[in-house]
Amino acid sequence: MTTEKAVTREWFDEVMVPCYNPMEMIPVKGEGARVWDQQGNEYIDFAGGIAVSCLGHCHPAMVNAVTEQANKIWHLSNVMTNEPALRLAKKLTEVSFAERVFFANSGAEANEAALKLARRWAADVHGTEKSEIIAFNQGFHGRTFFTVTVGGQAAYSDGFGPKPGDVSHIPYNDIAALEAQMSEKTCAVMMEPLQGEGGIVSPQPEFVQAVRELCDKYNALLIFDEVQTGNGRTGHFYAYQGLGVTPDILSTAKSLGGGFPIGAMLTTEKLAAHMKVGTHGSTYGGNPLACAVAEAVVDVVSSPDVLAGVEEREAWFREGLQKINDKYGIFSEIRGKGLLLGAALNEEWQGRARDVLVAAGQQGLMVLVAGANVVRFTPSLVITKQEVEQGLAKLDKAISTLVAA
After folding, report:
1. Same domain for 360 and 238?
2. Positions at the binding site for pyridoxal 5'-phosphate
3. Binding site for N(2)-acetyl-L-ornithine: residue ranges?
4. Residue 152 near residue 169 (C-beta atoms within 8 A)
5. Which pTM value belongs to this model?
6. What are the pLDDT digits (tens) for 135-185?
7. Domain end (from 245, 271, 301)
8. What is the CATH number of the domain that holds 214?
9. Do residues 112 and 146 touch, judged by C-beta distance below 8 A?
10. Where does a domain end: 301, 331, 361?
11. Looking at the chain, which terminus has fewer C-beta neighbours within 10 angstroms, N or C?
């Protein structure tokens, strides 16, 4: 009889490609905004799997959806369609500007599809010389070679050989720089309506409006990367709905599946017509299991109570973080919107965001960073007040240990 060996953190160093530096503990169970590790230690989850677990862990609606679908059919490929994919696509068009949906497996793939659509549209309508894609410094759009090139962080894109061409980067929130860069050769402008990985940077209202107007002026498409901001994260189902500007193409993923891998590109009927049969595809895109779970997520998140509750929870976080800062004076500002928040470290604490993350973990709290100087919070959209208070108390204790060190 074979005895299974206990899985340990050391296995990671033995068998995994070293792209990551995971924490020492290994979670084995989750419920709501709480997680337990192999030793039974409990953690409050303010990380949400990097803005993915929008309904927390093992939400009944998601569990029921995947269980029911698992007993029906798992996979078909795109040689045929399936009911969960069609229902989900229909609902996404009902909660957004979109008329057409393309399913993928991740945010990077959704962005890849968005960029390919923009280039194909430009070539079909205006000619191949209209190919420039403008994006923004410190942006993040995924890890495929195309999307990591469009993302404005050289640390992620350098070192892999020649990059895809005709990609330009300018500062976020800089209207003058955008005006200077745009021309009739500009195919599309790609932006996050609130920069996530780049440090939780909100757009100025006049900047977003200017981007839309300049795209219209130069016959360029506006692509909103809502992989992190979408699906209720900012208190609107999609962040663009709170900005008064509508994109031509939108990418969504992360919390769309609440933890089950799925992504989608949303666009108009007119633009979608340029992606003809064989132009693009995905073996797993529109997978029945993924779409069934995502449909359940959309049903819950799009309810007025949940969306209104995001603003209420943002207030809980801002008030609690302000109290912590009043005691220790380590944050220069609390920024972001809804439950995509960042506590920016002041000059004295520059470069120590990961120190806060590690100290928080030692106190039983899971948080994130957004660069070296911002502690990021992307918890469940339905996290309870008690869980927020308990988590902030753990953060208080973690920071006190750093201050005392």
Report:
1. no
2. 107-108, 140, 225-228, 283
3. 143, 282
4. yes
5. 0.96
6. 999 999 999 999 999 998 888 899 999 999 999 999 999 999 999 999 999
7. 301
8. 3.40.640.10
9. yes
10. 301
11. N
